[in-house]
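Researcher: If convenient, please comment on what follows.
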Amino acid sequence: MAWITGAGKTISIHSICFALNQVLRKEKGIAYPRVHRILVLAKEQAIRDQLAKELKEDVVKYGICKVQPKDGVVKSSDKLDNDWWLEQHDIVVSCIQQVWKQENDRPRNNIEQILGKFAVIFFDEPHFAKHRVEDLAELATTSLCFGLTSTPINARGNVLESYILFSLCGLREVYQEQKNLKYLLTSFSLPCMQG
C-alpha cells in the first residue's frame, strides 16, 4: 500500500488491525481469536526505533486508544525465540535482517515458527529489500502480510511492480476528492501519476 509522506502510514498499522478485528468479530463471533500481536519489519535500526516510538505514542496522541500498546524492540535476534518476551508485547518491531538471521544467505531454521507467532506482519518500505520481503512473506504462511511505503517508485521513477495499487494520485487530487486534508498552499502541486 502506498501513501504520500505524512499521510498516516504508521497509524494505518493500528487501523488495519482494528478493522481486521471488527471483521473477525462480526463474521466469526466474539470468541474467535483476534489480531493480538503484530510484527513490524524495518530496513534499518534508526527507522525501527522511530517506528516503535510512533506506534506506541501516536495511537494515544491521536485519540484512537486510551492506553498505549506494549511495544517491544528487537535489538537481538534471540528475542524472537523467547516466547515469554514476545507474549509481553502487542507490537514487536524489528529489522528484517534480525528475523532472517542470515547464515550463507539462508534463513534461520525456525523462521516459519517465528513468523507464525504473529497474526499480521507489516513491512515498512518493502522495496528496499524486495527479494528478502518476498521470501519472508512466502514463509509467513499463517500471517497476513502488508507492505507499506511512501515512496512507491523505483530508482528510474517507475511505479513499483508486484504491488497492489489502491490509488495513486497527488495531494491536490486527494484534497479535491475527499476534502479531508488541510490544503496548505494553493501553489502546491503534485502530479497525479497514472498506474
Observations:
- Confidence is low (pLDDT under 50) at residues 181-195.
